Amino acid sequence: MISAIIIEDENAAYQHLKKIIETNYNSKITIVGHETGVEKGIKLINDLNPQLVFLDIQLQDGDGFEILDHFSNSSSFEVIFTTGLKDYKEKAMDYFAFYYLNKPIQSDQLIGVVDKFLSKQSAFNSEKYLAFKHQMENKNHKISLPMNNGDFTIVDIDDILYCEADGSYTNFYTADNKIYTTSNNLKKVESILMQATFFRIHRSTLLNLKHVVQFNHTGELVLSNKKKLLVSSRNKTNFLRILKLMNYSIS
Q1: The domain boundary residue, chosen from 123, 150, 177
Q2: DSSP 106
Q3: Residues 6+ apart with CB under 8 A from 32
Q4: When comparing pLDDT for 171 and 241, which is higher?
Q5: Is 214 strand, coil or helix?
Q6: Is residue 209 predicted with pLDDT exceeding 50?
């Protein structure tokens, strides 16, 4: 069951949204709370730790973006904006909102968005959490990289910062500022490293989580060598879940 809250200062809009969710998703989503302002909304999220937040922009004591700013370093919930303001869609996307709906909310439109959300949730379930936990306990510390000339280079897995696709090849960037180009594509590399602490942050980038030292709500992360990379909006939520699983302090 997905836990959700609604932060909305118009009672009629709140009741309308709540009715649609309860009518169509009674066995899948439960509305666990409702608030009307920024400060109370922040407290509600802290208290209930919801998986989904339906968020209005214009609230009693500020705007919805202030709530997201508060959780920019530790957000583990998805956001669906439900607002009468039409000029903030681009800004909402900067905050990695799952969707942006304009009022008045139409039932079929909301149902379509929530269905997409549920599909995304099912694609990343507890089994994958366990898989990552197993990866972190991996005892194999080295990998053999096939080079273009037929030779092999032995690299310590912990020294790999990230891997980047280069056509049908893959570049390995290491902590000692070396770059190794292997004749395997990134998909093959990912399958080889599936028992190590690596996560696909972008379709062309595979990251060693052990080297993450900073991450912010814009999707930008900093590695141990101060290199900056960007997590795609599609992968941000799952990336946050993995960091939480690994007990990272996100800043």
Answers
A1: 123
A2: P
A3: 3, 4, 5, 48, 50
A4: 171
A5: strand
A6: yes
